[in-house]
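To whoever is on call:

I kicked off a structure prediction for a single chain this morning and the downstream step that reads the tokens threw a length-mismatch warning. I double-checked the sequence; it's 501 residues and nothing unusual in it as far as I can see. Pasting both halves so you can look.
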Amino acid sequence: MSAPVVEPGPGRAVIVPGLWAVVGFLVAVEVASGILQGYYTPIFTDIADHLGIREGDVNWFEAAQLMLSALAVPLLSRLGDLWGHRNVLLLSTAITAVGSWVLVFSPGFTTFLVGWALQGAYVVWLPVEVAIIHRRTAGTGEQGRLTRRAAALLVAALEAGVILGALTSGALVEATSMPVLLALPAVAVTVCFVVVWFGIERAPGVATGDYDYAGVGLLTVVLGLVMGGLVLVRLQGVGSPWPWALVAAGVVATVVLVRYEAGVEEPLIDVRLLAVPAQWSVQLTAFLFGMSVLGAQIPLSTFARADPDVVGYGLGASAGFVSTLVGVYVVSLLVGALLLPLASRLLGARGAMVAGMLLVAVGYGLFVPLHGSTVQLLANLGVAGIGSGLLVAALPAAAAAAAPGRPHRVRDRHDERDEDRRRRDRLGRLRDRAHLDGVPRRAGGRSRVAVGLPDGLDGVLGQRARRRAPPPGGAAGARGRPGRVRPGPGGSCRVPAGIDH
């Protein structure tokens, strides 16, 4: 629920009691989220050695986690509206903690893959936290400003957690065993569950309507078919027809999903939004950008750690260097994000995004000729990081600006008709009350009725009265202007004679 607001005095800001205490608890959650995102990157090569797998197979961990994340975001976001955001934050934290502890005791590749996928539930933390803050600041008159300030703190905590996680794992990988090393982020997530349980207030969901179970099922089928096809590519090779058959089945299932979601009143995914010309271009850009900002993490880490004398490529760097590489990348992301206002003023919103894309392309393109030293790697990633920071900051704002004023939902048309019907019913009851509360009729069947109406409805009732007024020349036409509603004493209105109550 929204907290009581302390009215500001002259020159003072709005004060929401308890708001920044809640933000403090959520900052702790985002630090843990950053630890999860930065902790494992320097030690991917050591994880592969621990599990007895090839370094290239580590990419399957990220693929499985991203697949679960793609399912978790729409599923848990809608569940948060119905069930309450705190409850969804607890659920997703519990799932992430289970996945983190599975990694600690995992005996092999398959179990580790399952645990890593379960960790993907953390992707919903930040949007749910922003929703909690947005709801708590309702009624303050400065909801947008307070939410933006709190969100900035959460993002700063996330980035600090990424750096902290990377530096910690890089420093400890040579000093302790792998189970102990993997237990540290599991402990952090478990502590987060306790923080959310005791630090965030309970609040019911704010949305009504049904849950799109069929949409969840179809989305699961789509992701399962595509992921199954990719797994078969690993097992049977690109020459086998079975992987491509599964991928083709996934494409067909995607068409079915889109057609179904387009006709649902409360869809899991609002596919109509993608039909907006300015929106689908932003979403396609985000899709392509995700390939670099998410897909390049493991290959870069394993490339830097690979021994060129053994495999013919790589730098043979230590985990400590990779943690430094992660730190440089995160700092360059922050620099890029801070440069967005200046770039937007100089180049415009679209020009700033184009500049960000070009920097990302140039940064990763430089890896082709320049990949023989740690300095070259740091420079390339710094350029790509600045461009990524521009896009990370610009894409959400571009998506929001391209969104229509009202969601394109089937339910909206029904809601509008229902509201019109309720409005007519209310006006009808007011008209009946006007008749019952009126003074006795005078001779000739004409009367003057004094009716107290709520503010803003006197004009609406006047319009209805004019529509129902008898034609000129009749009984009403003998006295003034029929249908004219004149305000009476005390804020009431007087309905002239001749109006049929």
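Update from on-call: the warning came from a stale cache, not from the record. Cleared it. Sanity check on the structure: Residues 107 and 232 are 22 Å apart (CA to CA).
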